[in-house]
Design brief:
Blueprint (H helix, E strand, L loop, with lengths): L3 H8 L6 H15 L3 E7 L2 E9 L2 E8 L5 H9 L10 E5 L7 E2 L2 E5 L4
Parallel strand pairs: 3-4, 4-6
Antiparallel strand pairs: 1-2, 2-3, 5-6
């Protein structure tokens, strides 16, 4: 859902939809920065976004909060089936950062 206003009108409430809102915020910001944005499918699952601008590519996983080891493993593990060396990021609403893990950088949403 790229338009959060339409999303809120349709849902009439926001309960456990924070991850969708986070993805929409990141998607809209990438479009505003001039990226072409795609969804990445792998044999093991999905990478939330493949962003491309001027022949440069990066991968982005969006998460509301990295509040458990299971969530951290899921978000960082989404890249396990991606064999190239393009930059990989996990972006979340957390106000702290995990830094870099195995070549994957974590950023708080506000720093993004």
């Amino acid at each position: 859902m790229a338009d959060l206003g339409l999303f809120l009108l349709k849902k009439n409430k926001v309960k456990d939809e924070f991850s969708i809102i986070t993805e929409s915020l990141i998607y809209n910001e990438l479009i505003a920065r001039g990226y072409q944005v795609y969804i990445g499918k792998t044999y093991r699952g999905e990478v939330d976004f493949i962003a491309q601008r001027n022949r440069k590519i990066c991968y982005i996983q969006a998460a509301y909060l990295l509040d458990s080891q299971k969530t951290i493993d899921r978000e960082f593990g989404a890249y396990s089936a991606v064999a190239d060396h393009h930059p990989k990021f996990v972006i979340s609403h957390d106000d702290w950062t995990l830094g870099e893990q195995d070549g994957i950088n974590h950023f708080p949403l506000l720093d993004f």
